[in-house]
Amino acid sequence: MTSFTVMRNIIRLHGVPLSGHAHKVSLFLGLLGLPFEAVESGRDTRATEAFLRLNPLGQIPVLEDGDLVLADSNAILLYLAKRYDPAGRWLPEDPAGAAAVQRWLSISAGEVRFGPANARAVHLFGLKTDLADAHAVAARLLGFMDATLAARDWLAADRPTLADVACYPYVACAPEGGVDLEPYPAVRAWVARVEALPGAAAMPRSAVPA
After folding, report:
1. Does 210 score more than 70 pLDDT?
2. Where are the beta strands (DSSP E) in the chain?
3. Mean pLDDT over each residue of the chain, to the nearest integer
4. What's the Cα-to-Cα distance from 80 to each of 75, 90, 203, rounded to whole Å?
5. CATH architecture of the domain covering 11-84
6. Class of 95-195 in CATH
7. What pLDDT shows up at residue 7?
8. At what angle are helices 73-84 and 95-109 packed, to 10 degrees?
9. What is the DSSP letter of 115?
10. What is the rounded distance in angstroms from the CA atom of residue 139 to the CA atom of residue 183?
């Protein structure tokens, strides 16, 4: 009998620890049990020719998986689910289940970004945007999420899916933007459930006070 070792591509994730967009990818890699190399890519790095060859928009995260180079956190999540989770645990194959997950992926790129993520970016990174508007968006989002999670443990199904991975980071660290999670007990319980999943890593919190 001939024995051989199947060599897996080295997965590289370009990002920074405090990026929620990068963290959702690293979180999912951990949940899938996939080892990866984290490549620190701060602002100076993202302005280099080498990085701009990976993503001409100069944004993180960027995933390298062998010859594949892919940007945009939600696109990366979809790729990883299709590539490394053929059983469809994280991305349902049935039309209704897939649509339910997609709705939350859209919310993660919409209300989550323009609500808690923007509020946090104002406090941590000096983003020039309307903080009151970001807080208002966050309040509408968290009220909706809390009502959803009061009736179920997970956002889109009876098990964790990409919906939970995509929405988790910026909701978990919402207090860093002055968004209080205390009025949303179901959301807080959901954050704890995500962080308790095998292979999960909690979103890093900044030392900068909100």
Report:
1. no
2. 11-15, 37-40, 62-65, 68-71
3. 94
4. 9, 10, 19
5. 3-Layer(aba) Sandwich (3.40)
6. mainly alpha
7. 46
8. 150
9. I
10. 10
